[in-house]
Amino acid sequence: MGVISRSQVFQHGLEEIGNKQLLELLLSYNLPQQKAKEAAHNLLEHFHSLSDLLEADLAHLQWVKGVDPKAAILIYSILEFGRRYQGEKLKERSTLETPMDMMQYVTPLFYGHSDQKVYLLCLDAKQRVLRKEKLAEGCVTRINISYRYAATVALLHKATKVIVAQNHPNGDANPSEADNQMNFHLTSAFRVLRIPILEHLIVGDDSAYLFSQRRHIKLIDVQSAS
Questions:
Q1: Which of 23, 43, 94, 174 sees the fewest Cβ atoms within 10 Å?
Q2: Closest by Cα among 205, 137, 131 to 174
Q3: Which run of H or E residues covers position 23?
Q4: Domain boundary at 65, 85, 105, which?
């Protein structure tokens, strides 16, 4: 059986086809049909799930037999398109009034990333996002942040409030001692500037931790509300 045809896509859409067929279709725009089928099979055999496949880096994708640089770039770009789509949708409603609003805004920032990142969101008096700035990026268990740089960003963009958002690539949203120290130092730095930290969030696999409330929000609740 060949790769699903374009006429079939136009007639029936993509919702009912399986992951392997969808991947074959994508790769067929870069590879001959038989090679697209073989590459799709090898990719799913290697990564075991579509989520792991889409989160792979370019080098890892090219380790798989039948995947050339063009095919690797094609696959690698899918998640980035998803992030940008989510980002543009969120700009349409980027007043962050509730913890759910904040979670809907920050969660896409971490899609597919296996390293730890910390973002600062600068807000105006109406809690509209003025600026999104990546403060730091590091390995899974350790990250270094410049508190002076965080303060400079907030002042430069005339923030009246800020939100700090970070991820835990290991999936556990519970704060570590290093996270507690980061929260303490950031809170102290912004208190001097009289800029309150509206929230500090840690995003894990299935929940996020809110420092202000010392509690978790399930990500499935966030997705249901979006």
A1: 174
A2: 205
A3: helix 19-27
A4: 85
Taking 3-state DSSP, the helix, strand and coil percentages for the chain, each rounded to the nearest 5, stand at 50, 20, 35
Residue 90 lies in a domain: no
Classify 112 in phi/psi space as left (phi over 0), alpha (psi -120 to 50) or beta. left
Ranges of H-type helices in 56-138 = 58-62, 69-91, 99-106
User: Does any domain span residue 195?
Assistant: yes
**AA letter at 110:** F
Kindly state the DSSP code that residue 95 receives in the 8-state scheme: B
> Structure pTM?
0.65
Q: Is residue 1 in some structural domain?
A: no
CB 129 within 8 A of CB 105: yes
Residue pointed to by tokens 């509209």: 128
Tell me how long the chain is.
226
Give the Cα-Cα-Cα angle 196, 222, 204 (nearest 5 degrees). Answer: 75
Question: Do β-strands 116-123 and 129-138 pair in parallel, antiparallel, or remain unpaired?
Answer: antiparallel
Q: Which residue has the tokens 């929260």?
A: 183
Domain that holds residue 190: 95-225
Tell me if 153 sits within 8 A of 119, measured CB to CB: no
CATH number, domain of 161, equals: 3.40.140.10
* The total number of structural domains that make up the chain: 2
* Tokens representing residue 68 in the block: 């050339």
Residue 102 has a CB neighbour count (10 Å cut-off) of: 22
Quick: pLDDT tens for 79-102.
888 878 876 766 655 789 898 889
Contacts of 111 (CB under 8 A, 6+ apart): 79, 82, 83, 86
